[in-house]
Design brief:
- By secondary structure, this protein is α/β, with parallel strands linked by helices.
- The protein has helices at residues 9-18, 104-121, 135-139, 143-154, 163-178, 215-222, 230-254, 263-275, 286-299, 302-305, 318-332, 344-356, 361-372, 377-394, 403-415, 427-437, 445-456, 464-467, 472-490, 520-523, 525-538; strands at 57-63, 68-76, 79-88, 129-133, 159-160, 184-190, 195-201, 204-211, 258-262, 283-285, 336-339, 504-508, 511-515, 544-548.
- It folds into 3 domains: 57-161, ATPase, nucleotide binding domain (Nucleotidyltransferase, domain 5), CATH 3.30.420.40; 164-347, Nucleotidyltransferase, domain 5 (2-Layer Sandwich); 360-498, Hypothetical protein af1432 (Orthogonal Bundle), CATH 1.10.3210.10.
- It contains 21 helices and 14 strands.
- A 6-stranded mixed sheet has the order 8-7-6-9-11-10, with helices on both faces. A 5-stranded mixed sheet has the order 3-2-1-4-5, with helices on both faces.
- Helix 5 crosses helix 12, helix 14 packs antiparallel against helix 15 and helix 19 packs antiparallel against helix 21 (525-538).
- It is elongated and about 90 Å long.
- The model is unreliable at 1-7 and 12-53 (pLDDT under 50).
- Residues 71-354 form the Ppx/GppA phosphatase N-terminal domain.
- Homodimer.
Length: 549
């Protein structure tokens, strides 16, 4: 019972990754390695995992509101060599009704596209592919069933990201594609349902905003009849200006040396301006934009304007995107904008590479949130150590044996007390609220929600009803991780600085057995009372916990 063991290789990697410069030696911490962790593909194949594999080929898929994009790249000496690009104009946003429900036709169109994409990436290992959904999938009320089908079509998990996270990834992709120096830049991306604005220095984004307006949504709202009269154009630009007014003052005060545009709408406008001799190749000026707007109004419709450089598939979404761009130039005082090739999908690749190389934006986010709310870092580390000890013993039997889930458990341990900055009373609920509603760069919306549920479930009632609101793929893993967090909290509630208590956790189907040193419970009656509470709470999720010496 007193034999001391060190970290498994997986736990060492995960712990050092989360806490740079922090290490428990064999004499500092006791861990059980009775259950060896496997490095194979997980049994639960519906959940993507970050395995310790050779990621020679990486892929990123962007499920945009207008187009779906996929990029496949091979790693060569730390750089990407693109081996394939696929793009299909799915126009998912066009299938969204005024009540925010996706039509069956739009879903079928999207699934057919993803089945074609899936042929190229199904055989890539877990953790080497990132798939994200943006504005339309963020707001669609019936996206859950669609996402289940989409995961099957692709063979990889899908993350729904927030607008701010979308902006961060766009900036990352643009910065790498243009090789940004330390000059300050404004980056803008007009999507089908939202427009992102980012100001950054070099590769670091400083200000990020995502506004609810895009080429598809504005074209549907203001140009549904195909006409582009002066009145319609004015109404669309005024609507865009009202949204931009929210960021106008802070962005103009921050300033920038260069404005950069990304993605289809801005690239299309640049092509049209070049073909008509209004601007140089890859550049949009305020005067060129004014000429294009006037030409469209005079023609009365995009079709009659007969723009050179405009593809047929963009005919019905150009007017809305053009109005968003024109309003942005006017309200933000942009005189000149260059066009970048990189965008969200390239940003996904670089962010994925960072995770593989243990340079994860989520680690920095968690540490920043801890410090913003003055978390007791030493205590949080002790909880994480205990949770890791318990995790290592059950990970294989509970099908949790992959790094992403271990990191999620450790992040929950790190953030479990952020709510103390609000009030000690019900602090677990305050913590959950802050985790759920804070801007957490690097985290998907669903991942952030799962973290919030775990933090809420650290004490008192087991959060069964909150877990049931997660996607089917995340419910069981979140439930099991929450159990481990709760047990780690029980043994650290006294905030003791000792971290040498040996606790053995055994599983037998629905039965859990905690084995403690002889006489330990008699010396810790409060912990014994807390464990009795856990016995009752775990019955709610059909787990039978027993505690023995």
């Amino acid at each position: 019972m007193n034999k001391k063991r060190g970290f498994s290789s997986q736990v060492k990697r995960a712990w050092l990754r989360l806490r740079p410069g922090f290490f428990y030696g064999k004499d500092d911490l006791t861990l059980s390695t009775s259950n060896q962790l496997v490095q194979n593909k997980p049994k639960n194949e519906s959940i993507g995992v970050m395995q310790d594999t050779n990621h020679d080929v990486l892929a990123a898929v962007d499920l945009g509101s207008n187009s779906f994009h996929m990029i496949i790249a091979r790693m060569r000496d730390g750089h990407f060599q693109v081996v394939d690009r696929l793009r299909e104009m799915v126009q998912l946003r066009a299938g969204l009704d005024r009540h925010h429900y996706l039509s069956l036709e739009a879903q079928e169109r999207a699934i057919a596209c993803l089945e074609r994409f899936g042929e190229r990436i199904k055989d890539l290992p877990y953790g080497s592919v990132r798939v994200v959904g943006t504005n339309t999938l963020r707001i669609a009320h019936n996206s859950r069933r669609f996402l289940r089908q989409a995961r099957l079509a692709l063979g990889h998990p899908i993350e729904i990201i927030t607008g701010e996270e979308e902006a961060r990834l766009i900036y990352l992709g643009v910065a790498h594609s243009l090789g940004f120096d330390d000059s300050r830049r404004l980056v803008m991306d007009i999507g089908g349902g939202s427009t992102e604005y980012i100001i950054g220095d070099g590769f670091k984004g400083l200000m990020r905003e995502s506004l609810e307006m895009g080429c598809v949504s504005f074209s549907q709202k203001f140009f549904a009849d195909g006409k582009t009269t002066a009145t319609q154009m004015q109404h669309a630009m005024l609507a865009a200006a009202r949204r931009i007014r929210y960021i106008q003052r802070p962005y103009r005060q921050a300033g920038w040396q260069e404005a950069v545009g990304a993605s289809g709408t801005i690239r299309t406008v640049a092509n049209v301006c070049k073909e008509h001799g209004w601007a140089d190749d890859g550049v949009i000026t305020a005067k060129a934009l004014e000429k294009m707007v006037n030409h469209l109004i005079e023609a009365g419709s995009v079709e009659e304007a007969k723009f050179e450089g405009l593809s047929e598939e963009r005919n019905n979404v150009l007017a809305g995107g053009l109005c968003v761009l024109a309003a942005s130039f006017e309200r933000l005082g942009i005189e000149r904008m260059i066009v970048a090739d990189g965008a969200l999908r390239e940003g996904l690749l670089y962010d994925l590479l960072g995770r593989i190389q243990h340079d994860d934006e989520r680690d920095r986010t968690v540490l920043a949130l801890m410090r913003r709310y003055h978390v007791d870092e030493a205590h949080a580390e002790r909880v994480a150590v205990m949770a890791t000890q318990l995790y290592e013993q059950v990970a294989h039997d509970w099908e949790l044996d992959h790094d992403e889930l271990l990191h999620r458990l450790q992040w929950a341990c790190k953030l479990h007390e952020v709510g103390l900055s609000i009030s000690h009373n019900q602090f677990h609920k305050h913590s959950a609220y802050l985790v759920e509603h804070s801007d957490l760069p690097g985290f998907s919306r669903e991942e952030q929600h799962a973290l919030s549920v775990m933090v809420r479930g650290q004490r008192r009632s087991f959060p069964k009803k909150h877990i049931n609101k997660l996607s089917d793929e995340m419910q069981l893993t979140t439930q099991r991780l929450t159990v481990l967090l709760r047990l780690a909290m029980v043994f650290n509630r006294g905030r003791s600085e000792r971290a040498d208590t040996y606790i053995k956790l055994k599983l037998d189907g629905k039965k859990m057995m905690l084995v403690l040193p002889d006489g330990w419970l008699k010396e810790h009656p409060l912990t014994e009372a807390d464990l009795a509470h856990e016995v009752e709470q775990l019955k709610k999720v059909d787990l039978k916990l027993s505690v023995v010496a």
